[in-house]
């Protein structure tokens, strides 16, 4: 069971890193100030929400496929 937990942790870490990189590149154009502007913060919020929603839908579909495959065995 520990291997499955390790795989899940690695998958979540990878997803988080990809989301951070993509949303930052999309939303933060220049480093003018140390804080995010309102527009940048809004963009990051929306980007993260879309990324997490998409990830949840993919997980749901994969779980359904795994359950169907388990029933066929």
From TrEMBL:
<comment type="subunit">
    <text>Heterohexamer.</text>
</comment>
<keyword id="KW-1015">Disulfide bond</keyword>
<keyword id="KW-0479">Metal-binding</keyword>
<keyword id="KW-0811">Translocation</keyword>
<keyword id="KW-0472">Membrane</keyword>
<keyword id="KW-0862">Zinc</keyword>
<dbReference type="GO" id="GO:0046872">
    <property type="term" value="F:metal ion binding"/>
</dbReference>
<dbReference type="Pfam" id="PF02953">
    <property type="entry name" value="zf-Tim10_DDP"/>
</dbReference>
<dbReference type="GO" id="GO:0045039">
    <property type="term" value="P:protein insertion into mitochondrial inner membrane"/>
</dbReference>
<comment type="function">
    <text>Mitochondrial intermembrane chaperone that participates in the import and insertion of some multi-pass transmembrane proteins into the mitochondrial inner membrane. Also required for the transfer of beta-barrel precursors from the TOM complex to the sorting and assembly machinery (SAM complex) of the outer membrane. Acts as a chaperone-like protein that protects the hydrophobic precursors from aggregation and guide them through the mitochondrial intermembrane space.</text>
</comment>
<protein>
    <recommendedName>
        <fullName>Mitochondrial import inner membrane translocase subunit</fullName>
    </recommendedName>
</protein>
<dbReference type="GO" id="GO:0015031">
    <property type="term" value="P:protein transport"/>
</dbReference>
<dbReference type="InterPro" id="IPR004217">
    <property type="entry name" value="Tim10-like"/>
</dbReference>
<dbReference type="GO" id="GO:0005743">
    <property type="term" value="C:mitochondrial inner membrane"/>
</dbReference>
<keyword id="KW-0653">Protein transport</keyword>
<keyword id="KW-0496">Mitochondrion</keyword>
<keyword id="KW-0999">Mitochondrion inner membrane</keyword>
<comment type="similarity">
    <text>Belongs to the small Tim family.</text>
</comment>
<dbReference type="InterPro" id="IPR035427">
    <property type="entry name" value="Tim10-like_dom_sf"/>
</dbReference>
<keyword id="KW-0813">Transport</keyword>
<keyword id="KW-0143">Chaperone</keyword>
<feature type="domain" description="Tim10-like">
    <location>
        <begin position="1"/>
        <end position="63"/>
    </location>
</feature>
């Amino acid at each position: 069971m520990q291997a499955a937990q390790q795989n899940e942790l690695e998958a979540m870490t990878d997803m988080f890193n990809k989301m951070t990189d993509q949303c930052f590149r999309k939303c933060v154009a220049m480093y003018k100030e140390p804080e995010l502007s309102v527009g940048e913060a809004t963009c990051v919020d929306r980007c993260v929400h879309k990324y997490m929603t998409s990830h949840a839908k993919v997980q749901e579909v994969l779980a359904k496929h795994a359950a169907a495959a388990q029933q066929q065995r």
